[in-house]
């Protein structure tokens, strides 16, 4: 079968992309062939599309770490043709052709049945970013309860941060958003932020090794100095989950917040999240954790519009989630 895909090629040391017609015969080996209805745009996709060899080693390549669609065929008895499914993480969109194509072929071990309560479209509004938010909150909630105090969220207008705000607010947490986009403060309030701190103000906090305790916990999507300042301002026995590095990969913080306040720092990786926990989390995201404002969190584009959005996400200009509709005839 022929299908269309957003294809990235390395030509004379430069990376170029175009919409190409490919054949499913050339897809990688796998148990399950899926007709993709929706994908979503993540920061990792933008890195893959612009030739970051730390994400994608082999080109030509189809990015897209997220896909939601309908099974065309399966050699694994777990799934049947016609099943609605989600694939996020693992190697999809990295060195395995991903969701920016109308078909993918993957191992059955990567596939999650679409849970009741979600459409394919809603699953991609959540996508890897929302799944990462959910994983962050699942771990954070083990140590921090809504009654313990405020939870601070960095990168709050981004994909992970915006969904985290919405989920935390639904679960009864009082949230504080850190953002550098003053024009989007109303958007953050709509997601449930009770307080908003400008990124520059937060970056300018005192350089002391430990600061006044203000927050019961934090969800960090940025890394660098922002994460350092969150750690310094968390209350005794609080916790911080961290999943991003756009503001820096180094962590220059003393041990004082850990040994004087007993706080916990929790690293989050959604890529190889265990399948039993993956299914459990998708059930939560389809049910009690499904944001009430989910349909306010996204914009929708086509493959033809991907190029401009890739540049925008690299420049930090994207608000919320961007989903990609793979073909106009696809519904939810």
Secondary-structure map:
Elements: E1 2-11, E2 14-23, E3 32-41, H1 43-49, E4 66-74, E5 84-88, E6 103-106, E7 111-113, H2 120-140, E8 151-153, H3 159-170, E9 175-179, H4 185-190, E10 193-198, H5 199-203, E11 215-220, H6 224-232, E12 234-242, H7 256-260, E13 264-267, H8 275-286, E14 298-302, H9 306-314, E15 321-325
Parallel strand pairs: 8-9, 8-11, 9-10, 11-12, 12-13, 14-15
Antiparallel strand pairs: 1-2, 3-4, 3-6, 3-15, 4-5, 5-7
What does this structure look like?
Helix content is 26%, strand content 28%. With 332 residues, it is of the alpha/beta class. Strands 3, 4, 5, 6, 7, 14 and 15 form a seven-stranded mixed beta sheet that branches. A six-stranded parallel beta sheet has the order 10-9-8-11-12-13, sandwiched between helices. Strand 14 (298-302), helix 9 and strand 15 (321-325) form a beta-alpha-beta unit. Helix 2 packs across helix 3.
């Amino acid at each position: 079968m022929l299908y269309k895909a957003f294809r990235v090629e390395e030509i004379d040391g430069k990376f170029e992309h175009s919409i190409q017609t490919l054949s499913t015969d050339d897809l990688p080996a796998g148990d399950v062939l899926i007709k993709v209805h929706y994908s979503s745009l993540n920061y990792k996709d933008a890195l893959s599309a612009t030739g970051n060899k730390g994400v994608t080693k082999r080109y030509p390549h189809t990015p897209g770490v997220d896909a939601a669609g309908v099974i065309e065929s399966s050699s694994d008895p777990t799934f049947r043709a016609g099943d609605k499914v989600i694939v996020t993480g693992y190697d999809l969109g990295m060195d395995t052709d991903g969701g920016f194509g109308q078909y993918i072929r993957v191992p059955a071990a990567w596939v999650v049945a679409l849970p009741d309560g979600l459409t394919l479209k809603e699953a991609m509004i959540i996508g890897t970013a929302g799944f990462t938010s959910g994983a962050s909150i699942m771990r954070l909630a083990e140590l921090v309860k809504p009654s313990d105090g405020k939870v601070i969220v960095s990168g709050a207008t981004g994909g992970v941060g915006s969904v985290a705000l919405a989920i935390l607010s639904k679960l009864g947490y009082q949230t504080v958003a850190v953002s550098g986009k003053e024009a989007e403060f109303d958007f953050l309030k709509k997601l449930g932020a009770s307080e908003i701190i400008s990124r520059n103000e937060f970056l300018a906090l005192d350089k002391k090794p430990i600061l006044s305790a203000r927050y019961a916990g934090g969800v960090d999507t940025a890394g660098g100095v922002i994460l350092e300042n969150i750690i310094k301002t968390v209350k005794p026995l609080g916790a911080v989950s961290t999943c991003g590095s756009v503001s820096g990969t180094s962590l220059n913080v003393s041990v004082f917040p850990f040994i004087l306040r007993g706080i916990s720092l929790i690293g989050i990786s959604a890529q190889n999240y265990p399948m039993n926990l993956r299914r459990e989390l998708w059930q939560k995201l389809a049910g009690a954790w499904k944001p009430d404002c989910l349909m306010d969190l996204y914009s929708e584009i086509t493959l033809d519009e991907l190029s401009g959005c890739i540049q925008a996400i690299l420049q930090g200009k994207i608000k919320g989630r961007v989903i990609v509709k793979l073909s106009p005839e696809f519904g939810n």
